[in-house]
Amino acid sequence: MTDDTDDLAALLDQAATALRQRPAQRNWIAQFRDGAALTASEAAKVAAKDVKTIHRWCEAREIEHPDRPLGYSVGKLWLVDAAELLHEIETRYDLHARRVAESRLKQLQEERARSPQTLRAAEHATG
């Protein structure tokens, strides 16, 4: 092999190693179960905003940052990424607003742990 080929092979090995070390992506259902994904109404409570505001934020992020969505629409149900919601709040407002939202999120996650909610119940609650 030539030096260029050796360099390329070493670079590919490094990239493959880095990819194997990344945490596995979890699906939305698993994230919903552990509170990492929220319904739009739950996200609205965490953000202290109206549900329609959360919908607008999700739609805006689809356009402005398609590589980093705030949530996904599944029929009438929006599933919102909790970590991205906190990032959105900090970006739109400030770190203090994020900390307050983190507190609300923790409370919501504790409530969910006491009485788990199913996706079917969440979808029914959204109409």
Give a brief rundown of this model.
The protein contains seven helices and three strands, in the order ααβααββααα. Helix 3 (40-47) crosses helix 6 and helix 5 runs antiparallel to helix 6 (95-114). A three-stranded antiparallel sheet has the order 1-3-2.
Task: Explain how this protein is built.
The protein has one domain (26-125). A 3-stranded antiparallel sheet has the order 1-3-2. It starts with a helix and ends with a helix. It is 67% helix and 9% strand. The model has no long low-confidence stretch (mean pLDDT 83). It is elongated and about 60 Å long. The chain is mainly alpha-helical and 127 residues long. It has helices spanning 3-21, 28-33, 40-47, 51-64, 82-92, 95-114, 119-125; strands at residues 37-39, 71-74, 77-81.
In the predicted model, the low-confidence regions spanning at least 5 consecutive residues are: none
Strand order of the largest sheet: 1-3-2
Report the radius of gyration as a whole number of Å: 19 Å
Q: Provide the helix percentage.
A: 55-70%
The total count of helices amounts to 7
N- to C-terminal distance: 63 Å
How many domains would you count in the coordinates?
1
Shape: elongated
Class inferred from helices and paired strands: mainly alpha
Q: Please tell me the overall pLDDT.
A: 83
- Major sheet: size, sense and barrel closure? 3 strands, antiparallel
**DSSP strand content:** 5-15%
Could you tell me the number of beta strands? Answer: 3
What is the succession of H and E elements? HHEHHEEHHH
